[in-house]
Each structure stands twice: as C-alpha cells, then as structure tokens.
C-alpha cells in the first residue's frame, strides 16, 4: 500500500455528514464508557483535591489548569451530548442558544450585584474569563440541567407525558444537584461567598437563586426539546446518563475528602437513581485495553 492509498483510506474513514457522524460518535462513546464515566472523574477528583491541598505530586502548571478543567468537563459530558444530538432540531438549538444567553446574563448579574445567589467571587480561573465570569460557563451549567432532565424522564415513566409532572420533578432535581456541586466547589476554592454560608460555606440565598435558574432552564428545555424523540433515544442508547455517573463520582469523592457528608449522601442518591433507571450496568466497571476508535462504514456502497 502506498502512502497515498493510506491517506485515502484515512480520509474515507472520516464521517462526512450528520448521518455518518451520529453513529460514529455513538460507537466512540459506547466503546469507551469506563474511561469516560469512571476513569476521568476519578483522575479529576485527585487532580482537583491535590491542587487545592497543594500536593507536591501535582506540578504547579497542572494545578487547577483551566484548559484541563474545560476539557475534562467536555469529555465527561460527551455521553449525554452525543446521546441527545440526534433529537436536536432547529427549535431545540434555538432553545439551547437562549439558555446559553441566560447563563451568561444571570451569572454576570450575580457577580456584579450579588443577586440572586448572594455576593461571591471566583477564586480559580475556570478557563478564559470574560467580564469576571468563565467563558465556558454553559459547558458547566447546561449539561447539569440536561442530566437532571433525562434522569427524571426515565424515573417518571408514563407520568413524564405530563408537562406539569416534568416541571414539578426536574426543577427540584436541578436544585438538589447544586447541594452536591456548590459545597465541593467552595471547599476547592473555585468560588467563595463573601458572607459565608450555613451549608458547608454556601448561603441559603444561593439555593434560592438556583430555584430561579432551574425554573428558567428547565422551562426553556421543556418547551424546546422533542420529548418523544428523547424517550425513544433513552431506551435505545444506554450511555446517555453516564455523565450523571461522572457527576456522582467526581463531586461525591471531593465532598467526601472535605467531610461534606450530606452532599455525599445526595450524590449517592443520584447514583442510585441512575441504577434504578437501568442506565449504567455495573458490569461496565472494568477498564478497556485502549481507546476505541470506530470506523465509519458507508453502507450505501457495501456489496
């Protein structure tokens, strides 16, 4: 085989359109579930705790390294993002765009005025900062809301056909996820509230603010997403909630290190919810021999 032939084969294996990209991504995520859902959050927890505690084994350039933080978040969110992708149409993309704008707006208002979360300041750069807020903020926030939305759809079963039931369950679920996230983030020094707080350094005003943000975010998603498409996808694609597994491992472990035991219990409850929804097989908790890279087969030209 000549060099030109090898290049041609490589180019032929690259997906060229959405019809090819979606199954390629499915195979990529499905072949690397342990690495994404277990290995990444475990390493992330060690790196974050080591950075906060000043462990000598974590070199200074790697401590709270912003590109690593964003990259790790995207990798762990990949199963959910890839799972949702085939259901996204123009209305859903418009809703996600609106939610992205809201994420920046409410965070800017929060940083500059203290409303609705309470006055706080970032102590760690979570990637490039614009106007005092992380440019990658939607990467951190939107997957969290989507994870809660997908988990609740599964746990509600037939009752999820009711919009009122969806909103009544998903909104509290999003706020409850922050009971895990915020105490761990404060313990790490990601951000700090000027007046401190009664819940592991987090003020009650923060959770009141999350109620507002959850109402807006869940409301926008519920009006924008194709619920029937999501139901079908959830039952055919078993890795869609792997990011929730990563959330439980990462933030549960960090909270455990700092002795935040109530957030640990809440994280475990979310993990049990994923298992009850039968979206994560404990038999998958074994490392693969390497990264699985799928090859796209053009079925239109098969003999």
UniProtKB/TrEMBL annotation:
Q: Does the keyword Iron-sulfur apply?
A: no
Write out the transmembrane intervals: 34-58, 64-85, 92-115, 135-156, 168-192, 204-225
Keyword annotations for this protein? Membrane, Transmembrane, Transmembrane helix
Q: Which superkingdom? A: Archaea
Q: Sorted alphabetically, which NCBIfam families does this protein's record hold?
A: crt_membr_arch, CruF_Halo
> What PANTHER family does the annotation carry?
SLL0814 PROTEIN (PTHR39419)
Q: State the protein's name.
A: Carotenoid biosynthesis protein
Protein species of origin: Halonotius roseus
């Amino acid at each position: 085989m000549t060099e030109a032939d090898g290049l041609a084969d490589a180019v032929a294996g690259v997906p060229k359109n959405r019809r090819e990209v979606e199954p390629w991504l499915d195979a990529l995520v499905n072949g690397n579930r342990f690495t994404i859902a277990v290995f990444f959050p475990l390493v992330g927890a060690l790196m974050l705790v080591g950075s906060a505690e000043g462990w000598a084994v974590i070199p200074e350039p790697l401590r709270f390294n912003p590109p690593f933080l964003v990259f790790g978040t995207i990798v762990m969110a990949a199963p959910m993002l890839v799972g949702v992708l085939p259901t996204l149409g123009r209305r859903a993309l418009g809703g996600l765009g609106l939610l992205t704008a809201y994420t920046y707006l409410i965070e800017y208002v929060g940083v500059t005025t203290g409303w609705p979360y309470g006055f706080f300041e970032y102590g760690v750069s979570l990637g490039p900062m614009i106007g005092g807020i992380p440019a990658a903020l939607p990467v951190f926030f939107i997957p969290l809301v989507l994870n809660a939305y997908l988990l609740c759809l599964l746990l509600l079963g037939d009752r999820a056909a009711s919009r009122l039931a969806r909103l009544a369950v998903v909104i509290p679920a999003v706020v409850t996820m922050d009971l895990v996230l915020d105490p761990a983030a404060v313990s790490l020094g990601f951000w700090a509230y000027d007046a401190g707080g009664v819940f592991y350094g987090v003020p009650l005003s923060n959770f009141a603010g999350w109620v507002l943000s959850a109402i807006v975010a869940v409301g926008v998603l519920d009006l924008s997403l194709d619920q029937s498409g999501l139901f079908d996808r959830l039952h055919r694609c078993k890795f869609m909630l792997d990011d929730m597994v990563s959330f439980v491992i990462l933030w549960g472990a960090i909270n455990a290190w700092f002795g935040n035991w109530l957030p640990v219990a809440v994280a475990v409850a979310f993990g049990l919810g994923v298992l009850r929804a039968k979206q994560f097989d404990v038999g998958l908790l074994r490392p693969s021999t390497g990264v699985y890279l799928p090859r796209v087969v053009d079925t239109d030209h098969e003999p």
